[in-house]
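Hey, I'm writing a tutorial for new members on how sequence and structure tokens pair up, and I'd like a real worked example in the thread rather than a made-up one. If someone can provide the structure for the chain below, I'll link this post from the tutorial.
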Amino acid sequence: DITNGVVEDKPHLLLEPSATNLFTFSEDFSQSVWGKSDSQILSATHKNPDGTTNAKVLAYNGGTNQHYMSLTPSVSSGQDYSFSVFLKAKELKFVCLIFLNDVAGRFFDLENGTLLGTFSSAPDNSKIEDFGNGWYRCSITDSATSTTKLCGIYLSENGTSIGSITPTTTNGVYVWGAMLEQQSFATSYIPTAGTTITRAAET
């Protein structure tokens, strides 16, 4: 019912669908399943969005190429997938999430919590959500065009390009809680530590 322009209705629940995190290591980015290109994972004691203190830092590691880490799970061609990760500015404040198979990416500003421009082509959807204490959950959604989905987190110095950069330090960003799911939007984070994990649909 609508009274004076205000929707009045019975209380209702916001229920989430079933989802599977296809990243087998969603927090331990030092694992070999996460490929690194002129980048490294550094340990930190910074507090994560869930209150734990095992955040990692994705940082430069020399070289003159693009600086990123990536993981390539198996997927179903033609289906929508959402790639999300919690990020926080450190020495750097810009990152780019890219589906490299589809060459679709989005730059994010981790200082102001805003979406920036696209890389090559625009994902079907991009989002940045404020989780407090400087943390943002960044996500992109796009349809799979093959049976694998290369998901990359790229460091950027200017918010418009991903290299080539010649770093002189180990500057980087805080990173935690990565997830890839067969959904047209990012659902609640599902932690993993060696296997994929499925959350049952809420009822």
